[in-house]
């Protein structure tokens, strides 16, 4: 690509012109060497780059004669073809598709096997899946760190590396119970854990919840995957917010369904656009997903918005899936309402856990609660039980501390009031962003994320992943671009404000220096 003067976006646009399904994340994976294109994509890339497809896939040992007139001619021809592609991209109105290149640059091999080497490609189910919270930009950061570069990371909501400690009582109780946790637990979880979760759900107002309606999991992530796999057939649709936590879209896709994104409106505190939600319901729609409190925006949905969502689900007979992992991290005196408490006549699935509220992300303990009208979902529940049984059980030592964690003093409350770390770090990052021309934001009300908006006209930004890469390479600052959360415009990015104030101020300073001259 460098030799031909091409960027990743050039390849993507050329693919669009040729009706080849190829995205930026795919190209990034190929360039980094973390995945290999399947045969049809490899043929397209080889034609576009003017090289031999076997060489591109690493199937031949390349030796190039520097004095070969024929090779120089072929290289020149290949370059002309590639320049034609660039010109076509720049002048779309005059574009004519590339013709198959008759004589690509074939690099000679010392030895060639008589039988072609078999290669293995990833599943096509992954073609539309992204998880850029740990994606190509993070891979570049890891490469830089391996070379000795110190990267300031604001990309992932993992409290432990930033000095947040698990409550002593939780650690003490786990140690005391370790010898009792050596075997499998019941598939849904330990009695003590499920009893504590059931009582917690009763306090939150979730209707019609019994012990058998509680499922523990290796974090909420496992349970999201399980819940979608048990529900969806090919072509089924699920309404998912945009921006979203990308695992939701990924799990819908991997289960064979289609994630249909409804817009959350930045002009309205990032609340769901109810009209947009209604407009996207079809006869294939099975469920609505909400993330409240929201990741990546930090929004907390008021009761009136939740009631409107319940009404939409009621009118169209939809399941409600509610991701509430941040329900104990709400600031500014606001109250979090669980949507299931407003929908006793509907079937709802509510997710939460201890990873964030008790700073034990590595313990991997989350839960899923079935509530409301379970009669209409009896067959689906049978599917949940089948998949739950297949994974045997979740992490038993982590289950053993659920009762302790949910009872007594909640140390997280000390973090989210004035003077507490999370509250004060939110104030710090907001004040720092206020000083940067071209950046705006909606004040987050919960969790520990902020989702700033970039003035794309000012900075000429048309590719937010490239923006994140350029920021990383120049300022050694790692953030996640908005596209990583299925936000379609290249005008947002997420900052995790878990680091201490001094680190957040340094990060904002690097961002300000970068934007003082950056133009894409």
UniProtKB/TrEMBL annotation:
Its EC number is 2.6.1.2. Keywords: Aminotransferase, Pyridoxal phosphate, Transferase. It is an enzyme of class 2 (transferase). Its cofactor is pyridoxal 5'-phosphate. Residues 24-56 form the HTH cro/C1-type domain. Signal peptide: none annotated. SUPFAM superfamilies: lambda repressor-like DNA-binding domains, PLP-dependent transferases. GO terms for molecular function: DNA binding; L-alanine:2-oxoglutarate aminotransferase activity; pyridoxal phosphate binding. It comes from the Bacteria. Pfam families: Aminotran_1_2. InterPro entries: Ala_Aminotransferase, Aminotransferase_I/II_large, Cro/C1-type_HTH, Lambda_DNA-bd_dom_sf, PyrdxlP-dep_Trfase, PyrdxlP-dep_Trfase_major, PyrdxlP-dep_Trfase_small. Belongs to the class-I pyridoxal-phosphate-dependent aminotransferase family. This is alanine transaminase.
């Amino acid at each position: 690509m460098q030799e031909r003067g091409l960027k990743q976006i050039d390849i993507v646009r050329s693919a669009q012109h040729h009706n080849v399904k190829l995205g930026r994340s795919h190209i990034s994976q190929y360039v980094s060497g973390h995945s290999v294109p399947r045969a049809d994509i490899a043929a397209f890339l080889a034609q576009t780059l003017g090289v031999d497809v076997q060489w591109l896939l690493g199937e031949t040992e390349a030796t190039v004669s520097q004095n070969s007139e024929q090779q120089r001619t072929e290289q020149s021809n290949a370059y002309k073809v590639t320049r034609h592609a660039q010109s076509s991209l720049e002048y779309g109105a005059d574009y004519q598709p590339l013709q198959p290149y008759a004589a690509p640059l074939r690099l000679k091999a010392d030895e060639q096997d008589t039988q072609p080497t078999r290669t293995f490609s990833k599943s096509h189910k992954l073609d539309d899946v992204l998880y850029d919270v740990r994606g190509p930009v993070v891979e570049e950061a890891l490469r830089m760190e391996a070379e000795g570069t110190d990267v300031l990371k604001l990309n992932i909501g993992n409290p432990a590396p930033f000095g947040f400690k698990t409550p002593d009582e939780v650690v003490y109780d786990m140690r005391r119970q370790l010898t009792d946790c050596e075997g499998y637990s019941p598939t849904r979880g330990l009695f003590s854990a499920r009893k504590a979760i059931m009582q917690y759900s009763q306090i939150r107002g979730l209707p019609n919840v019994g012990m058998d309606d509680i499922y523990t999991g290796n974090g909420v992530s496992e349970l999201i995957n399980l819940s979608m796999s048990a529900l969806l057939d090919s072509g089924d649709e699920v309404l998912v917010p945009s921006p979203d936590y990308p695992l939701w879209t990924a799990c819908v896709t991997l289960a064979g369904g289609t994630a249909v994104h409804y817009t959350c409106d930045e002009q309205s505190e990032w609340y769901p656009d109810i009209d947009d939600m209604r407009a996207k319901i079809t006869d294939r729609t099975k469920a609505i997903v909400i993330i409240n409190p929201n990741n990546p925006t930090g929004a907390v949905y008021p009761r009136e918005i939740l009631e409107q969502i319940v009404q939409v689900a009621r009118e169209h007979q939809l399941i409600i899936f509610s991701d509430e992992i941040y329900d104990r991290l709400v600031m500014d005196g606001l109250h979090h309402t669980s949507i299931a408490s407003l929908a006793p006549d509907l079937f709802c699935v509510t997710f939460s856990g201890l990873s964030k509220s008790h700073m034990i992300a590595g313990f991997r303990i989350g839960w899923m609660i079935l509530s409301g009208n379970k009669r209409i979902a009896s067959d689906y529940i049978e599917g949940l039980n089948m998949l739950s049984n297949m994974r045997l059980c979740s992490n038993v030592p982590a289950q053993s501390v659920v009762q302790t964690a949910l009872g007594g003093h909640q140390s997280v409350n000390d973090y989210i009031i004035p003077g507490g770390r999370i509250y004060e770090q939110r104030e710090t990052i907001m004040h720092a962003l206020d000083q940067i021309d071209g950046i705006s934001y909606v004040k987050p009300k919960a969790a520990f994320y902020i989702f700033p908006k970039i003035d794309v006209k000012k900075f000429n930004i048309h590719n937010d992943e490239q923006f994140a890469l350029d920021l990383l390479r120049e300022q050694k600052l790692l953030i996640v671009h908005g596209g990583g959360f299925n936000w379609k415009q290249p005008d947002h990015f997420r900052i995790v404000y878990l680091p201490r104030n001094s680190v957040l101020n340094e990060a904002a300073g690097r961002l300000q220096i970068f934007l003082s001259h950056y133009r894409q």
